[in-house]
Amino acid sequence: MLSLVFAAAFATLSRFATAHTAAATEHTQEPFVGWTQDDLDAKWGTDWGFTGISTFAHLPHTRCLQHPETPYDIAILGAPFDTAVSYRPGARFGPRAIRAASARQTSFRGYNPRAALNPYREWATVIDCGDIPITPFDNALALRQMTEAFTNLAHSVAPRENAESEVVYRRKPKLLTLGGGS
After folding, report:
1. pLDDT tens-digit profile of 43-54?
2. Which residue range(s) make up the domain with 167?
3. Total domain count for the chain?
4. Rounded to whole angstroms, how far apart are CA atoms 161 and 46?
5. What is the CATH number of the domain that holds 63?
6. What family is this (predicted)?
């Protein structure tokens, strides 16, 4: 008796499926052209404090080692390197932890009343360059990778208005390294 009920239900469902397959194949996807880039930026361009990729203080992210032509005044660069430790402890997790801890900082909340300035909106173009890809298996290779990364970034240029500045310290970009060795 139960098998007859299942057979009847299967027959009914297969008739519905057959009836709807022809209609489903007639639809085509039209390209969406209803929004301009300004509309998309206004609607989707702002991240909340708890969304987006984790950069230092919600700064813009640029892979500086892959894009050395990007001008900046101050670059945040992670060096996730440690030695002589097992998997979980160690300084290799330092850059990620420091970025997570800086999540409260934003350009909106960066005003310092004692100094009367907002370091995120003053003269400097500050970006987060991500992390140096460092091997955890060979200390000599890891040191060479870090040295090459710092050497490459030493040839970076500041934005034109600061590279031509009368203020000497603004002419050359600076690096702030997160992490290091243990």
Report:
1. 777 666 566 678
2. 47-180
3. 1
4. 27
5. 3.40.800.10
6. Belongs to the arginase family.
> Is 15 inside any structural domain?
no
| Beta-ladder partners of 180 | 80
Residue 22 domain-assigned (yes or no): no
> Closest Cα to residue 77, out of 179, 182, 181?
179
Per residue in 4-37, pLDDT (tens digit) is 666 666 667 676 666 555 555 666 766 666 778 7
Task: State the CB neighbour count (10 A cutoff) for residue 96.
Answer: 15
Where does residue 57 fall: left (phi above 0), alpha (psi -120 to 50 degrees), or beta otherwise? Answer: left
Listed as own residue / partner, the contacts of 18-25 with beta carbons closer than 8 Å and 24 or more positions apart are none
- What distance in Å separates the CA atoms of residue 157 and residue 150, rounded to the nearest whole number? 14
Q: Determine if residue 148 is left, alpha or beta; phi over 0 gives left, psi from -120 to 50 gives alpha, anything else beta.
A: alpha
- Residue 16 within any structural domain of the chain: no
pTM for the predicted model, two decimal places: 0.69
Give a yes or no: residue 71 inside a domain: yes
